[in-house]
Design a protein that fits this description.
Order of helices and strands: EHEEHEHEHEEHEEEEHEEHEH
Structural class: alpha/beta
CATH class of the largest domain: Alpha Beta
CATH topology of the largest domain: Rossmann fold
CATH superfamily of the largest domain: NAD(P)-binding Rossmann-like Domain
Radius of gyration: 19 Å
Number of strands: 14
Strand order of the largest sheet: 3-2-1-4-5-6-12
Distance between the termini: 26 Å
Number of helices: 8
Number of domains: 2
């Protein structure tokens, strides 16, 4: 079994990942600035409460526990944290990443997994699938944070035996957590759900369990070269109609308004720059599909909206 360190272990994804790894009898070390309910529930779980910028504590965790894999989710802005990314957060994330990469690169760890975001691709022209080689056109503080983190990781691990893996994750959902789904079909200003025409347009998302399977696949150390960037997402887009049908069956849905086009939607450029959750409804009909061919070599990406739990 592997020894795994998770930074950001008290976040939404961090908690789920911890439970998944403990169920497989892995030894898990978690760190976060806030505690979590898993402390003391499993002898294979050790939690250290500290800020991700606490160099001494994080260094001791990495160097003192013969880690196999480090999963870096601190500064990921999990869905239970404030969605606004300030200049101060950008600076703190940069300093945090710098020393963590340095320590991890000199450690005995086999893998280092950075949780990034598909937001880095931004608005693309055309309908070609978005692959890992597609140009990064994202423009927001969160995109700046993650792109810098990616570049620092790949540069810092050039001479290291530790394998750097960047997981560009599409917006996460589960059967219970559907906020990212709802954001694509809800007008918060008018307080109504909406469909454009028949709602057959769609979006790329990532069922949480596809991400967990991917991380577990990297922890098991796949054969051959596996460093680099991966799009981690569902294999098919989820249409607006499917989202509203799911919300209607599982959660409360208010009035649904049918629209004929994307005209009339306003774009808040200031909010789009600082709020990592902001969605521009005028891009609804773009139907961008993320190509997850590379990540399917690590995990089957079998989970869908119908099979999520």
């Amino acid at each position: 079994m592997a020894n795994v360190l998770i930074t950001g272990a008290s976040g939404f994804i961090g908690m789920k990942l911890t439970s998944a790894l403990l169920s497989k009898k892995h030894r898990v070390f978690g760190t976060d600035s806030t505690p979590n309910g898993q402390i003391g529930t499993d002898p294979n779980y050790t939690f250290v409460q500290c800020d991700p910028s606490d160099k001494e504590m994080i260094t001791n965790l990495i160097n003192g526990n013969k880690l196999d894999t480090i999963v870096h989710m601190a500064n990921t802005v999990d869905n239970d944290l404030d969605s606004y990314i300030t200049d101060a957060e950008l600076k703190r994330a940069k300093l945090t990443d710098k020393f963590i990469y340095e320590v991890a690169g000199n450690s005995e760890a086999k893998n280092f997994i950075l949780i990034s975001t598909t937001q880095v691709y931004g608005i693309q022209k055309g309908r070609e699938p978005i692959r890992e080689t597609t140009s990064e056109k994202g423009s927001s503080n969160y995109v700046d944070l993650k792109l810098l983190s990616e570049k620092m990781l790949m540069k810092g691990f050039k001479k290291s035996d530790c394998v750097p893996v960047i997981a560009r994750v599409a917006p996460i959902y589960t059967a219970e957590y559907t906020q990212n789904l709802r954001d694509r079909v809800y007008d918060y200003k008018e307080d109504v759900a909406f469909l454009i025409n028949d709602g057959s347009y769609g979006f790329s998302f990532c069922c949480l369990y596809n991400l967990l399977d991917f991380i577990k696949g990297i922890i098991s150390v796949p054969s051959g070269r596996y460093d680099g960037i991966y799009n981690v997402c569902d294999s098919e887009i989820i249409t607006a109609k499917q989202i509203l049908d799911f919300e209607r069956d599982h959660h409360s849905v208010t009035t649904i308004v049918q629209k004929n086009s994307t005209s009339g939607f306003s774009v808040n450029k200031a909010k789009a720059k600082t709020d990592y959750r902001y969605f521009d409804p005028s891009t609804s009909l773009m139907n961008w599909k993320l190509d997850n061919t590379k990540s399917k070599r690590i995990a089957p990406m079998k989970w869908t909206l119908k099979t999520t739990k």
